[in-house]
Amino acid sequence: MPNVLLLPGDGIGQEIVPEAAKAVRAVGERFQVDFRFQEALVGGAAYDDCGDPLPEETLRLCKESDAIILGAIGGPKWEQLPVHLRPEMGALLPLRKKLELYANIRPAVLYPGLIDASPLKPEVVDGLDLVVVRELTGGLYFGTKKREVVDDEEQAVDTLVYNTGEIVRIGRLAFQMAQKRRKKLTSVDKANVLASGRLWREVITELGKEYPDVELEHMYVDNCSMQLVRKPTQFDVIVTENTFGDILTDEASVLTGSIGMLASASIGGDVGLYEPSHGSAPDIAGQQKANPLATILSAAMMLELSFNMPEAARSIEDAVRHVVEEGYRTPDLMQSGGKEVTTADMGDLVAEYILKG
Ligand code: IPM
Ligand code: MG
């Protein structure tokens, strides 16, 4: 029986993770699978409990589980802590590294019911269906950092390192994903300026020879950020390094109507981690205003990628599509004529539809 570890984390994480668990339970009932759930503390919540944003116990439970659903971490309460104790640098990044989650997959899909919620014109965004494959354990996030005084001035250094092996493994995953989709891969770099970008481009070009059925194009990151709002439907799969992926996925997410719709899967190691792409939204936490759909859709990715249950994954996606088309909206998606619901209502509606099938 599949063992799922729930890590609600901070802020709205506490409200959205239970809704994803609801959807997985409904799937369990419909497809006769006995999902087991455990829960642990991470981020600011863990720091408040025991002074460590990533306690040993949490890490152990992560490694013992079959998959992890994470809500969000961080908030103003913990921003003044020394950097190694902050939820981002003290929990989320070490978790990605220790679990070897080198690939972050973030699909941006426009649900037809949400076309008017997108900031882009309907004719520009209609048909949007892309996926960003973001390298997750290298680059600026994990390179050597230092602070020093040089010539009486404070200086800070971040190092951007990539080696061939890191580029090959993320590249392969992206090519294989493109093979299963519309067979187009856009590799995004800054090869005109960065040495790491030139290596990235060389390695991906070489790798492309093994995937002749995939149309490969290279794009500079600045151009890509423009193309995403100019003509986002030109993209199928985008592969890019860690920092560019962070930035481009926020941009891609809002094209779908709300960052509250963007799911993500972090994979590569033995245990996959599934989390929405958005943050902990402390401004609306505890008010049942958060949109749980990104987390629910992340759970669908878990069913597909960790448990090889594509049909169950589709049942969640269908339920989300249905609920959105029926006009149910959390405040982030609200438009005139919509039916405003709470976080928990949204979770109930999705679970009900999964059960009805
Ligand atoms: C994300 C987030 C994280 C990142 C933060 C919270 C460290 O923005 O998952 O995109 O930058 O990777
Ligand atoms: Mg981000």
What would your notes on this structure say?
The protein is α/β, with parallel strands linked by helices. The protein folds into 2 domains: 1-109 and 258-357, Isopropylmalate Dehydrogenase; 119-255, Isopropylmalate Dehydrogenase. The protein contains 12 helices and 14 strands. A hairpin with a 2-residue loop joins strand 6 (145-150) and strand 7 (153-158). It binds 3-isopropylmalic acid and magnesium ion (MG).
List the SSEs and their pairings.
Layout: E1 3-9, H1 13-31, E2 36-39, H2 44-50, H3 56-64, E3 67-72, H4 87-98, E4 103-109, H5 122-125, E5 129-135, E6 145-150, E7 153-158, H6 164-180, E8 184-189, H7 195-208, E9 215-220, H8 221-230, E10 237-240, H9 242-255, E11 265-267, E12 272-274, H10 293-305, H11 310-325, E13 328-329, E14 339-340, H12 343-356
Parallel strand pairs: 1-2, 1-3, 3-12, 5-10, 8-9, 8-10, 13-14
Antiparallel strand pairs: 4-5, 4-11, 6-7, 11-12
Helix pairs in contact: 1-10, 1-12, 6-7, 8-9, 10-11, 11-12
The chain binds 3-isopropylmalic acid and magnesium ion (MG).
